[in-house]
Design a protein that fits this description.
nine-stranded parallel beta sheet, 10 helices, about 290 residues, TIM Barrel, globular
C-alpha cells in the first residue's frame, strides 16, 4: 500500500521530471495578447497632464487611441495621430448615477446619444458610452433591465444606421460606485439580449468585475459576443498592472485575443508614480512579448 509520504515523494519526482524537455516536444508558442496598436489609454486618470502632453506620451509609447474623450477634445487627440476608441456622451455631473434604469432619465440620455452618435460616426469613433445607473427605490433588477432595454431599443436604430456601438459599462457597487445597479455581467448581458441589436453592447471592465464576480477568464469566454470593449486596472487599488495586484493580465489578454476580438482594450488606472513607466508596463502586460 502506498503511504501518504510515498505519494508525496513520487509526486515531487514527477513534478521535477515535468520541468525537463521531452524528446521531440515543441516549445510552448508565444503568448498571443493585444497589440499596442489596439490598446488605448483613458483620459480621465491622467487629467492632471495637459492634453497635448498626454497625447504625445500615449503616441510615443505606441498606443493606438485615447479612450473616454469629450467632444471638445476630439480634434486635439486626432491631431496627434491617435484614434478615439470611445466618446463620452455627456458632461453631466451625475452621468454614472442617473442612468437608463430610471425612466425619468430617458429623455435627457436619449437626446445626448442622438446628438453624439452621428458626430462620432463622422469622426470615425466606434463607440459611445452610456450608463445603467444607480438603484432607485421601487425599481428592482427586473424593472431596471426592462427600463434600460426599452430606452436602448429606441436609440439602437440610429446607432445601427451610423455604425456606432453604444456600450454600457458594468461597475462595482462594493468599492467605487455604491448603489450602482448594473454591477453584474448577467444584468448587462440580459439587457443586451432584450434589445437584440449588434450596436448595443457591453464594456467589460476587468477591474470592476474582479471585485464583484471574479472568474474573469471564464466570463470572457462565455460572454465575449456581448463585449465590445474592455477596461483594465490593477486590483486592489485601481493602480498599475504590476506584481502588487492580483489579476494575471497576460492570461486575460490571451483569453480576449482567443475570442477573435478586434476592438479596443483601454487602460483605466491611476498610476502610482511615473505615468509613462506605468503605461509602458501595462502595454507590455496586455500585449504580446
Amino acid at each position: 500500500m502506498t503511504s501518504r509520504r510515498d505519494f508525496l515523494s513520487l509526486s515531487l519526482g514527477a513534478a521535477a521530471l515535468g520541468h525537463l524537455p521531452l524528446p521531440g516536444s515543441a516549445p510552448r508558442p508565444a503568448r498571443r495578447g493585444i497589440p499596442a496598436s489596439r490598446q488605448a489609454v483613458c483620459r480621465w486618470p491622467f487629467g492632471g497632464m495637459p492634453l497635448d502632453a498626454f497625447c504625445a506620451m500615449v503616441k510615443r509609447l505606441g498606443f493606438g487611441a485615447v479612450d473616454l474623450v469629450n467632444r471638445d477634445d476630439w480634434a486635439t487627440v486626432q491631431s496627434h495621430g491617435l484614434g478615439i476608441s470611445t466618446a463620452n456622451s455627456s458632461l453631466r455631473r451625475r452621468f454614472i448615477a442617473d442612468g437608463l434604469n430610471n425612466p425619468a432619465n430617458h429623455e435627457a440620455i436619449l437626446a445626448e446619444l442622438a446628438s453624439v452618435i452621428p458626430a462620432a460616426a463622422a469622426a470615425g469613433i466606434p463607440n459611445v458610452i452610456a450608463m445603467f445607473g444607480n438603484r432607485v427605490e421601487g425599481i428592482d433588477d427586473e424593472a431596471g433591465m426592462t427600463n434600460c432595454a426599452a430606452a436602448l431599443a429606441q436609440i439602437a436604430p440610429l446607432a445601427e444606421r451610423h455604425g456606432v456601438t453604444v456600450i454600457l459599462e458594468m461597475l462595482n457597487s462594493r468599492v467605487d460606485h455604491g448603489g450602482f445597479q448594473g454591477d453584474r455581467t448577467a444584468f448587462g448581458v440580459e439587457v443586451c439580449r432584450r434589445v437584440d441589436s449588434t450596436r448595443v453592447r457591453l464594456l467589460y471592465d476587468i477591474y470592476h468585475m474582479q471585485i464583484m464576480e471574479g472568474d474573469v477568464i471564464r466570463t470572457i469566454r462565455d460572454n465575449h459576443e456581448w463585449f465590445a470593449h474592455y477596461h483594465t486596472a490593477g486590483n486592489p487599488g485601481r493602480n498599475d498592472l504590476d506584481d502588487q495586484q492580483e489579476l494575471q493580465y497576460g492570461a486575460i489578454a490571451e483569453a480576449i485575443a482567443a475570442t477573435g476580438f478586434t476592438g479596443w482594450v483601454a487602460h483605466e488606472f491611476m498610476a502610482k508614480a511615473d505615468p509613462a513607466r506605468a503605461l509602458e508596463q501595462a502595454r507590455n502586460a496586455v500585449g504580446s512579448p
